[in-house]
Amino acid sequence: MNTENPQPGPGFSGPGPSAELGDTMQLLCGKWKLQIISFLLKNGKTRFNALQRSITGISPRVLSKELQDLQQHNLAKRTILEAKLTAVEYELTPHGKTLEGVIRIINAWGVQHSEYRQ
Q: Which tens digits make up the pLDDT trace of 1-46?
């Protein structure tokens, strides 16, 4: 067994994961964030209720919390619509849209992994 520390890969500054990787993992962790981001990437501006109906199993409370978190990190934008009843819609910010490549890579890896497991 090799007891030497492995060389850090690209984006790593030492023997352990970078702080940036940890921040990214914390931001995108959980069951819902990647699903929300993926949906908004595919569909653009979406009203809250439509978003909730499209993500099976998410409660309004959890969706609201996840969207607030994405807004705090400048990944999603909330727009209040002027209508008879107050409605809001969400969309990714330009910064949030930069996650498209990351999500495509994660999805491709998931496909390969499922084939590997068979």
A: 444 444 444 555 556 668 888 888 888 888 999 999 999 999 999 9
CB atoms within 10 A of CB 33: 19
> What 3-state DSSP class applies to 56?
coil
- What are the tokens at 72? 């705090």
Positive or negative torsion for Cα 106, 107, 110, 116: negative
Q: For residue 85, how many C-alpha atoms fall within 13 Å in the half-sphere facing its CB?
A: 3
Residue 95: name the closest of 32, 47, 18, 24 by CA: 24
34 contacts: CB under 8 Å, gap ≥ 6: 28, 103, 106
Q: Residue 106 in 3-state DSSP?
A: helix
Instruction: Let me know the angle formed at the C-alpha of 51 by 67 and 94, rounded to the nearest 5 degrees.
Output: 55
Number of residues that make up the chain: 118
pLDDT of residue 38: 95
